[in-house]
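Subject: complex prediction, re-run

Hi both,

The earlier run crashed halfway through, so I resubmitted it with identical inputs.
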Amino acid sequence: MRTSRLAQLFFLATLASSAFAQSNAPALPSQLPGYRDFSTTEARWDRIFLAAPDARLAGEHLKTLTAEPHVASSPEDYKTAEYVARKFREAGLETEIVPYRVVLSFPIKVQFEATAPGGFSQSGPTPEHVDGDPSENDPRILPPYNASSASGDVTADLVYANYGRPEDFKHLVDDLHLDLKGKLLLVRYGTNFRGVKAFLAQQYGAAGILIYSDPADDGYVMGDPYPKGPWRPDTGVQRGSVGYIFEYPGDPTTPGIASVPDLLPAKRTPLDQAAASPRVLATAISYHDAAPLLQRLQGPVVPRNWQGGLPFTYHVGPGPVRVHLTVQESYDLHTIWDVIGKIPGTDADGEFVVAGNHRDAWVYGATDPSSGTASMLEAVHGLGALLKQGWKPRRTIYIASWDAEEEGLIGSTEWAEQHAAEMDHCVAYFNVDVSVTGPDFSAAAVPTLKQFIRDIAKEVPSPQGNSLYFAWQQTSAEAAARRHGTFSARQGNAEVENDVRVGDLGSGSDYSVFLQHLGVPSTDFGSGGPYGVYHSAFDDITWFTKFADPNFKLLQQQARVFGLEVLHMADADVLPYDESLYAKEIGAYLETARMKASQEDITLDWSAAATALQQFSSAAAAVSKQQQHPPTNPDALNHALRKAETDLLDPEGLPHRPWYRHVIYAPGEYTGYDAVVLPHLNEALDKRDAPEAQQGLTRVADALQRAAQTLSSVAK
Amino acid sequence: MRTSRLAQLFFLATLASSAFAQSNAPALPSQLPGYRDFSTTEARWDRIFLAAPDARLAGEHLKTLTAEPHVASSPEDYKTAEYVARKFREAGLETEIVPYRVVLSFPIKVQFEATAPGGFSQSGPTPEHVDGDPSENDPRILPPYNASSASGDVTADLVYANYGRPEDFKHLVDDLHLDLKGKLLLVRYGTNFRGVKAFLAQQYGAAGILIYSDPADDGYVMGDPYPKGPWRPDTGVQRGSVGYIFEYPGDPTTPGIASVPDLLPAKRTPLDQAAASPRVLATAISYHDAAPLLQRLQGPVVPRNWQGGLPFTYHVGPGPVRVHLTVQESYDLHTIWDVIGKIPGTDADGEFVVAGNHRDAWVYGATDPSSGTASMLEAVHGLGALLKQGWKPRRTIYIASWDAEEEGLIGSTEWAEQHAAEMDHCVAYFNVDVSVTGPDFSAAAVPTLKQFIRDIAKEVPSPQGNSLYFAWQQTSAEAAARRHGTFSARQGNAEVENDVRVGDLGSGSDYSVFLQHLGVPSTDFGSGGPYGVYHSAFDDITWFTKFADPNFKLLQQQARVFGLEVLHMADADVLPYDESLYAKEIGAYLETARMKASQEDITLDWSAAATALQQFSSAAAAVSKQQQHPPTNPDALNHALRKAETDLLDPEGLPHRPWYRHVIYAPGEYTGYDAVVLPHLNEALDKRDAPEAQQGLTRVADALQRAAQTLSSVAK
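This time it finished cleanly. Structure:
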């Protein structure tokens, strides 16, 4: 790594460490239980809350929620909404079921026939099947498909395109000189969001993609397949939407506005003009169906890292395998149902907290999302216990059970778009999606809340007996050893060396609208393990109790994390934001971008950004002192803290995707799930567009200056 | 990496760069052809020599040599000896066929039966077979086996032990607490010498090993299998000896002495007392035979990096697969035949050069070793052209066609042991084994000769039209990119960053006795490519012309390299040894060892070694000046240069393996093929034995001091 005077500047600017974080110096996990002084009022509420979430009850929620397939807008989905609403009401929440009318796509006819010289012929898809799985043959299970695919009928030569990453397409076109126009591509799941695979295929002129799950990625190469082990069996298929949520999420016909039931049809963008709507055919298949096709491809042998786990040498094609792919989907308006529970706060200032989880599932959805819903319901159970003891939160709390997340984060996006005007009073959004697939805890957050979630992990016991924070440290140490030396270089995460890593928020779950469209500080968390049934019919209670969490203790743990997030944020006198860490991380992002520009010989003027960062960093340090010794009335301080987050939005949004307005974080347009930091700047650097990069850099500088000014106004 | 005063000392000691190397500043490869001043006498001989090796003739040699299977001591082997002798004589060499009587092991009965619950039963081995291969069903093909296996009959539970590396055994025993005593182990080929797998199995008390070729290592995961591509087909087996050549090579019953035909039987060590002779059963099988066994193993799932390319999840066992393994081998005295051709030199001082290649093959041996023999014969053709022009070399030249290399480097070891007393006059041994499997040139040498072989590569054209050196640079750059950051840390090769890498000599071919027993500076080289037929019946002329070298141009290139090595070394006024590079590399080896000791908290006294290295380095620099401006009679200088190499031998040899006497290089006792540098010191450090490590370090210091004194005596 090279350093320079400017680099030193960035790091000097961020050296003043967070006084806030220091004031929350971690107690030693080994002192658990009872390491915290439970004599304060806040700690007493914590203790009462922590006692309530119940593993057995969490298991019962899970069983109820996963009893039937419950895809968004189905009658079974509505039954889960009623169940969640009942549990909310039992806990004392003011609850309503909020409907939206949104475009959803369902399969009418999805099939393929493949032929190859020598009389080979195969048709599919093959139904998902393992011997003895109890969910076999449920007629309500949707056949495997990719929601939001275009509809059509194509016969073309097949080409293998590895993961469908930008570098994969470049290899096919630039190195192998293949013409992908009109071709059908066989791509494997993994490393990026499936919508990115479709998006790139579309950009390269392909007619469609068949996305399969290679055993090297979540099948027998990783471990024993279901039902013997937790990994994907041969017929298992990953369903999922290929909608371009990196353009904008939500109903593709209503970007930026809410799909309320009485929305005038004229307000809608026609689907064929919607930027989020794919123009290529896509369908998801199993490796049972993909292997015979892949085995018969000819043409060049693939590069070494394109070879998967199937027992033959992979070739690129094109052909001689020809595939006739038919995808017919319906794109109609359907009603979906968010369940919103409210606990009114005592504070007249109107600040509120939102915490949510989606409820709709591709099939049974034991891990995705019902593990999250079960955890959320036990968190609500804990909040109910507090209410029964007379507790009233300072800030209003909304607990949300979103619908139609799987089709494009629709329920959350529509609700937040509907309430966009009030969102400058929303002090945090806490998300949980898949809460449990195994014991390895992980979290992602804006830097403002990274220490916040670590502190909560210190207070929650793990099923192994020590604190969750301790267990998290163990997992992180192992993971760090595995990726040693690769991570920090990749993303310049300034704090990764010093503590358990809290990741950056990309996309793929319901926090997107809150953070990236509306500037609400957000977190997400989960607990992972060996997991090969994602979005298949096998993600059911049988799998869950055998491999993920047999006694539901992890669901209980996650309920405690989720509830404490809400409780601590709702009751805090002063918002527990760590602005200094934000400054430090942005400094690292800028330094990484500067090195990238330097490597690409792109000269930019970094001085305004360096100055703005220094101002932001100084103001953050000053505000930290205020947070430690707050004024009697902290309203102005809290208001400034919250506004500094909104200051990081740019009203114009990102180039070509104005819905995404955050200058620090966006979903990567070519990675999808992963965050791209400083998106305008970095995506321009990737395209070697110096003027555009300079503009992106200026917008970062402007945003930092706004935030610095906001914080300075209260930090005297 | 940490540095210290001592480290600086090492590097300061070696900073004085090689004046010799500077005097051979590389001409730019792009100036080829004609970049060298061909007006000097030496260059004129080079030019005449380079014109002679002929691709068509090389192809004819290859066809003749590979017409029949010709394992050591067979009648077909003797026919190849006669062919080689005839070609030597045609070129004008004084030629004799030199017989030895050595113990060789041949299969009498090798078979296995496997059973598992549920009625599974399988017996093998399955014969090697691919559709359409012309070598099918040759009755002279030995069935797949591992030479030097113990004989016996064992029925035991099977355990999968990955590559059979030390860390693999540690995982089974220390982490999984398996008792390997009496078990049969299924291990895969790769990463170490097969004899090491047997040696470790024996140390852990196992009864035997079945070694199979996993498709991840040289089969379909790497590329298309034969006959479609160059990689190993399902029934392909890697034959090979499991003899413990890292204890000593050659006839296992005559360590240190020559197995001449009239050797008294009483001089022989009984085989059951021979340290080089395995005590466990071993046999080689195909993945066609291994897969059904491996698939039925139960017990723990393997660690991620133990999973190979077969289409199921690997488990460790033990059992429930039980295997009944029978290995019956004969261990009789057989006659083998080295072919030795001589060109007498004009120098009365008695110095000579040896260049050799083995001739015996497990089956047809197109690449291994006949590609080397074909190259050698065309090098001899070139020397013959010189002789016809009246050329007489300054130093005597011996060209050797070794026998029984496959059984344990026997032909070379016996011949060199027979002539050990004269070996202080042998100024170099040049080896070639597999000369061609593809276009990627590589070389290994003592540091003294690393620049020597690079300079030769500058003079030889590659079939792509530019110099071999240029092609080598391209290959190296790609390889360096692949292993970026891993290599130098592993072995501290001081010069790897600055030029094409010339590796260190480990073991596995005929240079071992010359370098590691007798201190003769040695080189080895080859040209590699995709290659999955090693030691199988498919290593035949069909495979070779389809995948390795269709028009034999690479054989021609290698003939030129081999011949120029001989020519340059035989005719040099002053020996072209680069002692300064030796000092630099030893400095790097010492520094790496010092860091290892420091990491292990082993305190050693490094001062004597540092002082000796500095003396050696100074003397080397002074000698370099002498080499540039030699005295009229360079005999004393040459004598000192050669003696400095012998000074690096320790008469007592390594602990527990006295045959290996070189203090800088030995084959690794736990890696086999790879060199271990400073073997006494480093192996003691690996065992955390500080007193032994100090002794090893002292011996290095003593050897360096001897060499420094020798060089100083002529460097005034």
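The two ends of chain B are 38 Å apart (CA to CA).

- K.
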